[in-house]
């Protein structure tokens, strides 16, 4: 449909009713304009991804779990609406506070931080965390989880999170309050895009000083992530924010095509929730259409929606919309299949070496 012609749906004179559902509200958004329309379109695209049984990756940047959003992620996992996750270490670390019953409270952003420091209160915007009762207690828990008994063999961050989920399930006070535990139960791989940039890695320092080594196999995990996409009939990403989690999920396309010459084509669908601008040149604000030039997406014109808004506003709307109108899917249990997916990609690569495919492309 030519966007330069005068056609399209009529914009209604919107009327809200007391008994309207979340589906009604999303339809209101979708029939309007600006980022309201984008939000409505994003919710419907998420539903389409579920209906078409796409393998869905959730990327979460920043620190969304301190405001309780880990509970939303947990529900989406249980419904089969998230199949693998890429997140920051902060989201994993702070999510564990809820499982162990460590205090996190609403605070204020209009505050004297010098006084908070004196009172041993750590602030994330308007969320308060106790320095001793929460952070130091959490640090001790992490140190015990990944201390001397943690194997010296190479590991991925998915294995790291899986073990964390297992231990929190078995020993924490409230395992039902952790999406990491739920990911363990449903075999959803959780990758930490930059583990060294988090308190998780800081707590490994005490053991490293005692000569314990930690061998993060970061190359294996980027191959695993590409293998997940390679095995999928259709694949999509729901991106909360940008940063490294966004690129980690999207770079599966360039790895498969640019490096391994698999001619996969990238993601079929991507929803991006961001407040970053594209004109600064940063990845967080980079348009999804730009990703086509890198082979990160299949089609620069279809299957993508960007909503310029705060993810803490948009994410619950998207989640509740699909929870309300989509049937629960059987879990794909990708974590237990990672070795097989890795092996399948490896076999295909050596069966059809990159140089042969590259040469055939040049002839074409």
Structure notes:
- The model is unreliable at 359-364 (pLDDT under 50).
- Helix 3 runs parallel beside helix 8 (179-185).
- The protein has helices spanning 22-30, 34-51, 70-79, 89-99, 113-118, 131-145, 157-171, 179-185, 199-202, 205-208, 218-231, 243-250, 252-259, 311-325, 338-351, 354-363; strands spanning 55-60, 84-87, 104-106, 121-124, 127-130, 190-192, 235-240, 269-274, 304-308.
- Helix content is 46%, strand content 11%.
- It is built from 16 helices and nine strands.
- It is an alpha/beta fold.
- Strand 4 and strand 5 (127-130) form a beta hairpin.
- The protein has one domain (22-88, 136-363): Deoxyhypusine synthase (Deoxyhypusine Synthase, 3-Layer(aba) Sandwich), CATH 3.40.910.10.
- The strands form two sheets. The chain has a six-stranded parallel sheet, sandwiched between helices. A three-stranded antiparallel sheet has the order 3-5-4.
Q: Which key terms come to mind for this protein?
A:
3-stranded antiparallel beta sheet; 16 helices; alpha/beta; 364 residues; Deoxyhypusine Synthase; 6-stranded parallel beta sheet; 9 strands; disordered C terminus
Name the helicity range: 40-55%
Our estimate of the beta-strand percent is 5-15%
Largest sheet, spatial ordering of strands: 6-2-1-7-8-9
CATH overall fold name: Deoxyhypusine Synthase
């Amino acid at each position: 449909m030519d966007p330069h012609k005068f056609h399209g749906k009529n914009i209604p004179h919107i009327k809200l009713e007391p008994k309207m559902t979340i589906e009604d509200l999303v339809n209101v958004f979708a029939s309007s304009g600006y980022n309201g329309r984008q939000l409505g379109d994003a919710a419907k695209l998420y539903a389409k991804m579920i209906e078409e049984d796409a393998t869905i990756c959730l990327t979460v940047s920043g620190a969304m779990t301190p405001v309780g959003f880990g509970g939303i992620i947990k529900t989406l996992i249980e419904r089969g609406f998230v199949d693998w996750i890429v997140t920051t270490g902060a989201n994993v670390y702070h999510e564990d506070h809820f499982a162990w019953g460590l205090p996190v409270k609403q605070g204020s952003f209009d505050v004297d931080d010098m006084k908070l420091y004196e009172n041993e209160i750590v602030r994330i915007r308007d969320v308060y965390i106790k320095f001793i009762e929460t952070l130091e207690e959490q640090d001790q828990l992490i140190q015990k989880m990944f201390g001397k008994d943690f194997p010296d063999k190479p590991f991925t961050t998915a294995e790291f999170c899986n073990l964390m989920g297992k231990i929190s399930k078995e020993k924490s006070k409230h395992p039902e309050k952790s999406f990491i535990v739920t990911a363990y139960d449903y075999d959803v791989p959780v990758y930490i895009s930059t583990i060294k940039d988090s308190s998780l890695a800081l707590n490994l320092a005490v053991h490293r000083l005692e000569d314990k080594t930690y061998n993060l196999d970061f190359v294996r995990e980027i191959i695993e992530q590409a293998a997940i996409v390679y095995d999928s009939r259709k694949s999509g990403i729901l991106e909360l924010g940008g940063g490294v989690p966004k690129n980690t999920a999207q770079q599966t396309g360039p790895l498969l095509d640019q490096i391994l010459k698999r001619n996969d084509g990238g993601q079929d669908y991507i929803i991006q929730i961001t407040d970053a601008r594209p004109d600064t040149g940063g990845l967080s604000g980079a348009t999804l259409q730009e990703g086509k030039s890198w082979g990160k997406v299949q089609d620069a014109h279809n299957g993508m929606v960007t909503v310029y808004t705060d993810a803490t506003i948009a994410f619950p709307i998207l989640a509740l919309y699909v929870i309300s109108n989509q049937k629960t899917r059987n879990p794909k249990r990708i974590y237990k299949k990672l070795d097989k997916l890795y092996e399948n990609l490896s076999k295909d690569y050596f069966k059809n070496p990159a140089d042969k495919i590259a040469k055939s492309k040049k002839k074409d």
